[in-house]
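User: Hey, quick favor. My workstation is busy. Could you predict this chain's structure for me?
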Amino acid sequence: MSMRFRITGSWILGLLIVTVWNSALPGRIPRLQAEDAATKKVALPQPRLPRDRLLVYRDTKNQEVPVKTIADWQLRRAEIMLGVEAVMGKLPGKEKKCDLDVKVENEADCGTYIRRLITYASEPGSRVPAYLCIPKAALESKSKATPAVLCLHGTDNVVGHGVVVGLGGKANRQYASELAERGYVTLAPNYPLLAKYQPDIKALGWESGTLKAVWDNIRGLDLLDSLPYVKPGRYGAIGHSLGGHNSVYTAVFDDRIQAVVSSCGLDSYLDYYEGKEAVWMPEKGWTQTRYMPKLRDYRGKLADIPFDFYELIGALAPRNVLIIAPLRDSNFRHDSVDRIATAASEVYKLYGEPKHLRVEHPDCDHDFPKEMRELGYQLFDDVLKK
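Assistant: No problem, here it is.
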């Protein structure tokens, strides 16, 4: 889907300056509001900047210029966010927020922690089911706040988010309960249009299930911020498969997430199932309503998709990211992950934090083995328990 571009250099420069300024505000991620794009008739500059060469940006003449400073990188990042919102839709602002109105549906004593099935209002007309696991020590302590982790589940149309708290009988998926046993407060919201959570995406005004999930997760972080026993404003996110890319997407939009663990969750859109056209048909793979329907417009021209995991992982710098890409994963290609990490590592080097991006290749299939989960937990210990 090609887009034409004609706009004055002064407007581009002004837009980018405002974007960089916004990025300095607490909790803000630089992005262009969709209504601004509509009002000013702003389109993505063409041609697309190279996905595997991140340290370039466009100047006021729409020419490629090397990124030499972090301020330069923020200009490239702003364009990345334009591409993301062109496919996912516009992330809402305060107008979409409402009182969280948390309700406890049931509670279970799990030994060292309490597991609560709750619902919260992420927006008017939509209540998100979630499991909230709270270490008993956190409830008993009156002086020390507890770190928290957002735990996002894989594709499961039976128990949904229950799988990450040990329900549903799937091995190697119980990271929310394991982290609670390790002393973390964990929140595991259900992904929209899976299991018992069936919001009307279209009626609620969402262009993609992906962005609806991101919004639900952001509101979940708001919920964690509100809890007196949680250390606010600095969280981890972990997920397998669907949860793996859901973690990345959410962290790109919300910098309260300071450490991301993504298992079997990504490769380049160009490499997904080796680029076979069948997986880009309507309601297949990434084009399903619960993901990003607009991606069906790029069938046969995947190189034109205006963002990719190259850019998304780069956009997380300098935060801590652990990507687990098994050698025998049939969904996502481990060699594609290596190419993504190689490109994104240049951004981490720009920040002086090359060790904050790490890739592991366990010799297994589409799974999240114990030793890999332990690496993720150690990362959270290093980042969140300081």
